[in-house]
Amino acid sequence: MNVTALMQDLNNVTEFVFLGLTQNEEMQKICFVVFLLFYLANVMGNLLIVVTIIFSSCLNAPMYFFLSYLSFVDICYSSVTAPKMIADFLVEKKRISFIGCITQLFGVHFFGCTEIFILTVMAYDRYIAICKPLHYTTIITKRVCGQMVAASWLGGFMHSLVQTLMTIRLPFCGPNEIDHYFCDVHPLLQLACTNTYIVGIIVVANSGMIALSCFLILVVSYIVILVSLRSRSSEGRRKALSTCASHVMVVILFFGPCTFTYIRPSSNFSEDKTVALFYTIITPMLNPLIYTLRNEEVKNAMRKLWIRKVSSHEKTKIQTQWE
Asked: How does the record classify its membrane topology (predicted)?
């Protein structure tokens, strides 16, 4: 039996309707403009980081290798929810098909969990770089970097597959209104016409514990880093703290709301969708600002790329004029 046939057997619901962030028409128009700007800033900012790292020979350290993947995941992560949410501000009925809902759920957990693992890998990279600098090049090799990124993608896929399979097997008989702006496990559990207590516990154990355990690993790693910095020179301490501060800010902005949402059983709290804005839209948008404004190497690389582009454009313009 294929997936479509299974869903038809379990459901008489063919689509869901989002209640969205607000029902006020004027607020929806304002939200359309605001979140469209947020999304464009997110895509352009993260794309700029990816392009800068790819085309700048000076940004070949493992830290920037991981940062390029983090920026790419941020683009994908926001693109799963933001375009649909922005478009829904312009329509009265915010519909999504059952297949579209399940696909969105898979994408949210796939890219969200992958981001969690990449942030954890980045913390490990900083721990080795600061606490074991003499062994850094032998531990964090290009091959190891590739393996850690691949493991992050695989971990995100396995997590998302579990969440999706648990949800897709639930019967939905109606109602079909979701008090959210995207499809997630908790809101869908509330609509299932069966007892979802066990599934809810599995969701908390799966999503919540991944977020919480990775967050604790990150906290411990940075405590160890801070302790080890006491013996460094003031200049070395300043540089290390500057690099780690950017990562810590992203971790707090992403893990705080994410852990709050998934560490507890499903609830009827409508504020969950407001909290979700932080880890699906706002944090991915802020990541480029946080990493570039506090990192001189990235800013210098961007300047060099811009100068190279302008010089190339001027050279092409002159050649065209002479011809």
From this structure: Multi-pass membrane protein
Distance CA 209, CA 213 (A): 6
CB 168 within 8 A of CB 6: yes
In a domain, 240, yes or no: yes
Q: Rg (Cα) of the chain, in Å, rounded? A: 22
CATH of the domain at 99: 1.20.1070.10
In a domain, 264, yes or no: yes
Q: Which domain holds residue 219?
A: 15-304
Instruction: Tell me the CA distances in angstroms from 138 to 121, 144, 177, 203, one per residue in order.
Output: 16, 10, 54, 38
**Distant-in-sequence, close-in-space partners of 201: CB < 8 Å, separation ≥ 6:** 265
pLDDT in tens, 197-244: 888 888 878 887 888 888 888 888 888 888 887 777 676 677 677 767
For the chain, the domain total comes to 1
Tabulate helix, strand, coil % of the chain (nearest 5).
80, 5, 15
What phi and psi, each to the nearest 5 degrees, are found at residue 94? Answer: -95, 80
Is 242 a member of any domain? yes
Summarize pLDDT for 66-96 with one digit per residue, the tens: 999 999 999 999 999 999 999 999 998 899 9
CA within 13 Å, CB half, 308: 9
CA distance 244 to 227: 13
59 occurs within a structural domain: yes
Please spell the DSSP secondary structure of 171-224, one letter per residue. -B-S--EESSSS--HHHHHHH-SS--HHHHHHHIIIIIHHHHHHHHHHHHHHHH
Residue by residue, DSSP assigns 144-158 as: HHHHHHHHHHHHHHH
- pTM for the model stands at 0.86
Place of tokens 């299974």: 6
Rounded-to-integer distance, Cα 317 and Cα 126, Å: 44
